[in-house]
TrEMBL record:
The gene is argC. GO terms for biological process: L-arginine biosynthetic process. InterPro entries: AGPR (IPR050085), AGPR_AS (IPR023013), AGPR_dimerisation_dom (IPR058924), AGPR_type-2 (IPR010136), NAD(P)-bd_dom_sf (IPR036291), Semialdehyde_DH_NAD-bd (IPR000534). Keywords: Amino-acid biosynthesis, Arginine biosynthesis, Cytoplasm, NADP, Oxidoreductase. It is found in: Cytoplasm. It is an enzyme of class 1 (oxidoreductase). Signal peptide: none annotated. GO terms for cellular component: cytoplasm. Belongs to the NAGSA dehydrogenase family. Type 2 subfamily. This is N-acetyl-gamma-glutamyl-phosphate reductase. Pathway: Amino-acid biosynthesis; L-arginine biosynthesis; N(2)-acetyl-L-ornithine from L-glutamate: step 3/4.
Amino acid sequence: MAKIFIDGEAGTTGLGIRQRIQALPRTYDLEILSIDPAQRKDADARRALLKQADIAILCLPDDAAREAVKLAEGLNVRLLDASTAHRIAPGWVYGLPELDEQQGARIRTAKYVANPGCYSTGAIALLHPLVTAGLLPEDHRVSINAVSGYSGAGRVAIEEHEKNGGPAFFLYGLDLHHKHLPEIRHYSGLTHSPLFVPSVGHFPQGMIVSIPLHLKDLPGYPTPRDLEATLTKAYRGCEHVLVLPPETRLLADALANTDRMELRVHHNGEQVVLTARLDNLGKGASGAAIQNLLLMLGL
Ligand SMILES: NC(=O)C1=CN([C@@H]2O[C@H](COP(=O)(O)OP(=O)(O)OC[C@H]3O[C@@H](n4cnc5c(N)ncnc54)[C@H](OP(=O)(O)O)[C@@H]3O)[C@@H](O)[C@H]2O)C=CC1
Ligand SMILES: CC(=O)N[C@@H](CCC(=O)OP(=O)(O)O)C(=O)O
């Protein structure tokens, strides 16, 4: 039986992971080690559970995640970190199994796996295959727009939205230094940091990441079909990522409570908008963590 400790189990991501583990078939034989809620921030109590666990999933703010890694030093436990702390850190494997054909195998044997950011999952899934195929030059200057459900900002924001009605819609990250940019740049293969404008709508779960491109600016003037065919080939056989035909209207929360992501190439022949739709708490967080956990366990 594999023992799993979810550090930060009571938070938004932690809760989603616990519910998903509990819903897995019993034959997977997983045991969740839970901490006494009164001791959830006590370093000794956390280390004691890290010592017993085969895998610990860190669902903590970045500083607390870094602290957990220190607490686990010298122990046999493998770590899956949902925070932003280790996404491009040396020695950590990026937990996006669909990144390329080897990524699943890298995750399977890794001691340290970093779960991707929600926006990053959509952006990298759209950009990486196009850069790899040479359709998008590495030094192309890319803009990314995105909207997330309010659960993306954690428990305190959820309470604010649900108690006070919350704002209908807002842009944020307007200093243009969003915390996901380093991983987006690193794993998409771009040499320039994209211009990224995230936003939040007054709906709990869901996300659309969209990337506009002028095809005439790309080498060889590719067609929308070239882009779609490249994405389709990259994700053939992937259970959680689907490349689908364009739509005229895309609802941001249509995949709420699923662990899927849908990619589309919308176009008018000369201009395209690539879109990734997902649940920020599903493929954008807890669903991805379960995918990684099962890979790490060889299940
Ligand atoms: N929400 C999302 O869509 C996504 C979130 N993430 C990442 O997952 C991590 C958790 O986020 P989220 O679940 O939204 O956040 P929440 O605020 O909902 O939950 C964080 C949890 O961590 C606990 N905690 C805080 N400090 C410590 C500590 N020092 N030791 C132990 N426990 C601690 C909190 O307890 P208390 O509330 O009592 O302080 C809370 O239970 C973050 O790094 C976030 O960036 C990743 C992908 C998406
Ligand atoms: C709506 C909202 O605020 N979203 C968060 C990102 C979600 C998240 O916490 O992502 P990671 O921890 O995986 O990086 C933000 O923009 O900071």
